[in-house]
């Protein structure tokens, strides 16, 4: 009986700690006032970008940060698909962007705007405004306001699967359950890109396969993992061998080591 109680206590401990590990606050993955860095990081990571235009005293923006972006299902899904950045209308900070009559997209060679300019350009009817960009960093859609976590997650799933571009009706889509979470991706990066991510990105961890093996039961599958000193074949073999799902894995190209 005592041993059974001990086993139950250990199981509860593991579940509680796993829950803590997976509950990620918005501060742990949302970049703040780092416009160019978000888009450049997303290009390396092969992610879209979710740009949130807000105000420090906006109660709806506060609700979005604390009740929506920090909700477990929302934060996990966003980390799988987007680099999230929030900006205030700061006239002293600048970012690059390209606006023309046909396409709106990020380009580091684009025109320089202050954050105050970007705030006025992207703002729809108030704050927060949520602007979604595809993996090729083109503007997909945007909306103003903060909705409950369940609906916010539906919007992110709808846009991340290109359903908007495919003509899938939003009103019909949101009536059905969508269990899509994402797919696991492995991508090579250069040494320079590695250094850029470690300096500028959030939600990122640099590890070896040995370190992964020693912590596999407490890993957050939604982090961006840079695997050091391993080839793609070694990484795939390791993940398959232990049956571990990590959504975003990166390794160094051999010619960049």
Key terms:
Glutaredoxin, 257 residues, 40% helix, alpha/beta
Summarize the helices and strands and which ones pair or pack.
Layout: H1 2-22, E1 30-32, H2 35-45, E2 48-53, H3 59-68, H4 72-81, E3 82-87, E4 94-99, E5 104-105, E6 111-114, H5 115-122, E7 129-133, E8 139-144, H6 149-160, H7 170-173, E9 185-189, H8 191-200, E10 204-207, H9 209-214, E11 224-227, H10 232-242, E12 248-252
Helix pairs in contact: 2-8, 4-6
Structure description:
With 257 residues, this protein is of the alpha/beta class. The protein has 2 domains: 24-173, 3-Layer(aba) Sandwich (Glutaredoxin); 185-256, no CATH class. Helices cover 40% and strands 22% of the residues. It contains 10 helices and 12 strands. Strands 1-3-2-7-8 form a 5-stranded mixed β-sheet, with helices on both faces. Helix 9 links the parallel strand 10 (204-207) and strand 11 (224-227). Helix 4 (72-81) packs parallel to helix 6 (149-160). The model is unreliable at 1-21 (pLDDT under 50).
Name the beta content range.
15-25%
Give the low-pLDDT segments: 1-21
Class by alpha and beta content = alpha/beta
Mean pLDDT: 90
**Radius of gyration from CA coordinates:** 20 Å
> Count of helical segments?
10
Distance between the termini: 56 Å
The CATH topology of the largest domain: Glutaredoxin
- Give the fraction of residues assigned to helices: 40-55%
What is the string of helix and strand elements?
HEHEHHEEEEHEEHHEHEHEHE
**Which class of the largest domain in CATH terms?**
Alpha Beta
| Order of strands, widest sheet | 1-3-2-7-8
Shape: globular
What is the CATH architecture annotation of the largest domain?
Answer: 3-Layer(aba) Sandwich
The counted number of beta strands is 12
What is the CATH homology-level superfamily of the largest domain? Glutaredoxin
Number of domains: 2
Please give the largest β-sheet.
Answer: 5 strands, mixed
């Amino acid at each position: 009986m005592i041993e059974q109680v001990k086993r139950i206590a250990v199981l509860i401990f593991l579940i509680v700690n796993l829950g803590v590990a997976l509950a990620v606050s918005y501060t742990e993955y949302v970049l703040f006032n780092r416009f160019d860095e978000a888009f450049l990081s997303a290009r390396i990571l092969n992610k879209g970008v979710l740009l949130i235009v807000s105000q420090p005293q906006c109660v709806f923006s506060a609700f979005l940060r604390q009740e929506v972006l920090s909700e477990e299902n929302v934060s996990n899904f966003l980390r799988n698909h987007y680099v999230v950045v929030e900006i205030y209308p700061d006239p002293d900070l600048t970012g690059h962007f390209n606006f023309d009559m046909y396409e709106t997209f990020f380009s580091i060679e684009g025109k320089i705007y202050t954050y105050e300019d970007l705030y006025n350009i992207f703002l729809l009817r108030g704050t927060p405004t949520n602007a979604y960009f595809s993996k090729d960093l083109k503007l997909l859609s945007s909306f103003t306001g903060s909705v409950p976590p369940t609906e916010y997650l539906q919007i992110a799933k709808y846009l991340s699967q290109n359903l908007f571009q495919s003509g899938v009706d939003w009103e019909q889509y949101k009536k059905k359950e969508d269990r899509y979470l994402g797919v696991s991706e492995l991508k090579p990066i250069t040494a320079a890109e590695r250094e850029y991510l470690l300096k500028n990105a959030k939600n990122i961890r640099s590890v070896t396969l040995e370190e992964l093996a020693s912590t596999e039961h407490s890993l957050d599958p939604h982090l961006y993992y840079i695997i050091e000193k391993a080839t793609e074949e070694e990484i795939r073999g390791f993940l398959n061998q232990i049956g571990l799902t990590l959504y975003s894995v990166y390794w160094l190209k051999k010619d960049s080591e």
